[in-house]
Amino acid sequence: MSRAQDDPSTTALPRTLGYARVSTDSQALGPQVESLRAAGADQVFRETASGAKRDRTQLARLLKEVRPGDVVLVMRLDRLARSTRDLLNVLGALADKGAAFRSLGDPWADTTSPHGRLMLTVLAGLAEFERELIRARTGEGRARAKAEGRKMGRRPKLTPHQQREARRRREAGESITAIARSYAVHHSTISRLCLTPSSAVLACNHA
Description:
The chain is an alpha/beta fold. It is built from ten helices and four strands. The protein has a four-stranded parallel sheet, with helices on both faces.
């Protein structure tokens, strides 16, 4: 191994990386940046994007650049994640990189301390439990609906009477566009409707 590699001075020191986010340009990033700097952030990644947006460029950049031993700092959890699942995904990505996490506004969310790691482990367990409950309830609901003869999925846009009426109007030569407009539906709804019974296929082929 080379001398440069053996020299401790060449080893990158752990950093504190801040992440600040606002939803719109009319909101100010300054207060978050100042608080993160005051808390020891060496660098602050700044983002203007909705929390519901999946492709947040600066967050992706932070997750790419973070190194083992680094600590990622935010003002509040809602600046980082839009849901419990999203938060756990981000924290999982940081853990995979060997980095820690702290939220200034949520003292319990601190993976630099044993207590914080325990709290987040409990949170992950609760999130998994919630997902299992939802899956179980969904399965039970589908089974019950099937046993009762109810169809799953979205309700048809037209009633059975309207469907029969629309087919008769199409067979009589009325245009698909005119029929769709009268029921306030998209013309593709009428097109699909006319294609379902074999007796109506010829009628719908002459738009």
